[in-house]
Input
Amino acid sequence: MDKDLRDFMNGDKNAVKVEIIISREKTDNGTEHVYIKEPDSLCELYDFWHNPEKARGDKPPKHTGGKKPYIMLMVEAIRKLKGDNVETAISSAIMLADNIQWNTGLLTDKRKKKPLSYEDLRKLYGCSNDKLTNKIKAMEHHGILLKDKEGYKISTDFIKKGGAKV
Output
């Protein structure tokens, strides 16, 4: 085995320039078993499974890496809001920050990962139907809360969670 490669494998070096052989075996379902070998040796340096069909980085993160979760308030967009119940709309949206899904803004149950329903929102706020209806109307009027076939969403124009894409 090449001395530089041996030093790398032992952890004495973090980078090495060597000639290697990379080979793969494809399975019927599209995954690949990849092998990395040194040309002069029959022993494998590394082998791993790889699925080329699976896009990397497309999924939103499921955690914050041990850090406390955070949201970004888009101050310029919030400043532009005018009219009645602006404060109610903004504060109501901030109260939902814990349930905002990364990248999409969809409001979901933290445990079940299902979109929040009207009844779920009422339980989160701990208020009557009339008060919740007023909060929802205020947020929808100002474009902070949207509702589509997936469920309720917080507009990323106003609030973003984590690595939300613009």
